[in-house]
Each structure stands twice: as C-alpha cells, then as structure tokens.
Amino acid sequence: MKNISSKLLYHFLFLVFLACGSKQNTNHLSTTPSSAITFASQKQHEPAISEKKGLATQDSLYYESLHDTAMIELVRYDSDFILDIKYATADNFTKQVLYDCPRAFLRKKVAKDLLNAHKEFKKLGYKIKIFDGYRPHSIQFKMWDLTPDKRYVGNPHKGSMHNRGCAVDLTLVDKAGKDLDMGTVYDFFGEEAHITYTNLSAEVLKNRQLLKQVLERNGFRALQTEWWHFSYNRNVYSILNKPIPCKAEIREIK
Ligand SMILES: [Zn+2]
Questions:
Q1: CA 56–ligand 1 middle distance (angstroms)
Q2: pTM for this one?
Q3: pLDDT (tens digit, 9 = 90+) per residue, 8-21?
Q4: Residue range(s) defining the domain that contains residue 26
Q5: Residues 12 and 79 occupy one common structural domain
Q6: How much distance in Å is there from the Cα of 38 to the middle of ligand 1?
Q7: Closest to 237 (Cα-Cα) out of 70, 63, 64, 65
Q8: Are 35 and 147 found together in one domain?
Q9: Fewer beta carbons under 10 A from the terminal one: N or C of the chain?
C-alpha cells in the first residue's frame, strides 16, 4: 500500500513538473523531447541580454528611490557616457594621480539633467566624454597649492562646484569615437580656452557652440575661462570630502 502511494505521488509530482515546465517554456516544449525540459528550464534562469548589458537599466531603478542630493555614478544611469578621468592619471596639470579610481559621480538631480543633455547629443550622433565630476574637497586644496589662480582652480576655502557634485568637465565624441575639435586640450590654461575667444576655426566655434547650447538648455552654466566646464544652474549642494571609491559595488558616495 505504501509503495503504491509513493508511486502515485511520484507520478503526480512528475505531471506537476511537466505542467509547470510547459507554462514557462511553451515554445521549447512544443518542439523538443521531454529530456530537454530541464535544460530549457536552466537556460531560463540566465540573465537576459538586456540585463547583462544594462547596468544602467537595473541601477536606474535603484537610483529613482534615492534622494535628489545623493551622489551617484553617472555610467550606472547611462552606460553610454565615455569616461576619461584625467585626475585618476598623471595626465593632468598637476602631473600627479589625485583620484584613487577613474569614476564620475554627481548629485542625482545634476546627473538627471546631464542625462537629458546626453539624450539630445546622442540624437545628433554624439556622446559625452567626461573628464571630471565630483571632486573631493581635499583634492581642491592640492590643486590650489599647485595653481593658486582662481581663473582656473576654484578657491578651496570657498569650495568649488566640483566639490559639491554640481560641476562636470566634458567634451563630445563623434560616431567614430573621435573627440570633436574644441580648439585646445582639457585644462589648457590660456585665453584660447575662453568661451569668448573667437580666433578659432569655424568648426571649433560650431562645436563649442553646440556643447554650450545643449547644456545650457538643460540647466547648466558655462564658465568664461574653460570651454569644458559646466556647473549646475538650479541648486547648490554642500561640500563633500569623501574619496572617489574603487569598489564597484559602491554605487553612491555618502
Ligand atoms: Zn571643471
């Protein structure tokens, strides 16, 4: 009796298993033998291609739950941002590596406006390349010690917009991955980098105008002395002195 019950139970469970499998994998079951059911079920648990690709897709849901003042990583919101974080290398005006890791963070509200600007640029066939975003306050003092010129480095005693997560240094890249010609390199300290300087080719002037127009339309303000620097126009947040984190699982700076 016990054996018969066990057998019946076994058959019942097997039928339930088949029924569940057929609901989840209708397409596979209609053309494959029953031996393939387990394989099909296992495959289903692999992440979809869009999940694998889209850090931004998954993380944007997480970021939606955060407060506007949260300092969040840009590429998690939009994986099309290109990073060239100069202060995480010695290829900058200080000739020193200042950041622990090449990552770009901004306040959530600032990041969202930059995201909107990026959408406009992408429609035109360009992508944003980021040179710098949030900059820890202590790094501002180091920069000031080396270049105490308020035209090019924000006075650390006041704190720069970068220290508040409200400024971004950037340029544009075309479909071939080439930087648009903006007339000077990043952190060029001279009048050729000023936005009022016009002794430049028509192409450079057009590129600079495009950068400025789209960013200003999305809530950013240009800086007179640096074509690459844009600060947030809508709000000011407090100064922060947390280092740029290296651990990938850290998604925001608190
Ligand atoms: Zn800047």
A1: 25
A2: 0.77
A3: 445 544 443 333 33
A4: 2-44
A5: no
A6: 55
A7: 70
A8: no
A9: N
